[in-house]
Design goal:
EC 1.5.1.2; amino-acid biosynthesis; Rossmann fold; NADP; P5CR_dimer; NAD(P)-bd_dom_sf
């Protein structure tokens, strides 16, 4: 069995551990690192997975998943470099950080795979994009896709597209939450109780997402099916277009892409 070390047990790290366990991977094949002892003890109690410091976790692992914040990567690489065994696969879940950063800070020839997941991993519905570094083989990529398949969908992209992925799906859930928040407020403005407005919008969002995933129709066709001549929907769409919502969303995603590029350059 492949032994996996998850460095950083925040929301994403914990979600990955839980997903791997749910997929049938034994707890004995997993280990995690966590800076706060109370948090480590709580996760061990709840998941049955042991914790260790970075050198020990890495030294015993076949796959090391780095799930720390980008600004915390320098000390992690310092601890990792002397501990890694030859051939150990390093998987980065750090937004904005290129594989070249890991390759330059780790032993020569270390295979690195860059991943951009998103927070729906906590409910097993992540969208993750994977890219291989200089020394990553197709077998390494296939292994990472198998692991991440336990917590959602996976797509393989060239690393040059990872900043765009970060902006689109990495940050994407926040855009939907923002839209749902605004729609709930609109329901309250129109006189609905908050709980009723939330139920209406959340179920509508869930149903619309299911239609998008299960239908072969373009989103334009699905929208047009709801948009009757001289009806309520077209009146709302006209206001959205008048306020430039489409252009604002495109600009926002472009700004997120630019910030991802900055993160990769600043470390």
């Amino acid at each position: 069995m492949t032994r996996i070390a998850v460095l950083g047990a925040g929301k994403i790290g914990e979600a990955l551990l839980a997903g791997l366990l749910a997929a049938g991977r034994p707890a004995a094949d997993l280990v995690f690192t966590e800076r706060h002892p109370e948090r480590a003890a709580e996760l061990t109690r709840r998941l049955g997975v042991g914790s260790a410091d970075v050198p020990k976790a890495a030294a015993e692992a076949d796959v090391v998943v780095v799930a720390v914040k980008p600004q915390d990567i320098a000390p992690v690489l310092t601890d990792l470099k002397p501990a890694l065994r030859p051939g150990t696969l390093v998987v980065s879940l750090c937004a904005g950080l290129p594989t070249a950063l890991f390759e330059s800070g780790l032993p020569e020839g270390t295979p690195v795979v860059r991943v951009m997941p998103n927070t729906p991993m906590v409910v097993g519905e992540a969208m993750s994009a994977v890219s291989g570094g200089t020394h990553a083989t197709p077998e390494h990529l296939a292994l990472v896709e198998e692991l991440l398949g336990a917590v959602g969908a996976v797509v393989r992209v060239p690393e040059s597209q990872q900043d765009a992925v970060t902006a689109l799906s990495g940050s994407g859930p926040a855009y939907f939450f923002f839209l749902v928040e605004a729609m709930i407020d609109a329901g309250i403005l129109l006189g609905l109780p908050r709980a009723v407005a939330a139920d209406l919008i959340i179920q509508s969002a869930y149903g619309a997402a299911t239609m998008l995933r299960e239908s072969s129709d373009h989103p334009v066709l699905l929208r047009e099916a709801v948009t009757s001549p001289a009806g309520t929907t077209i009146a709302a769409i006209r206001e959205l277009e008048r306020h430039g919502v489409r252009a604002a969303l495109i600009d926002a995603i472009e700004a997120a892409r630019d910030r991802s590029v900055e993160l990769g350059r600043s470390v």
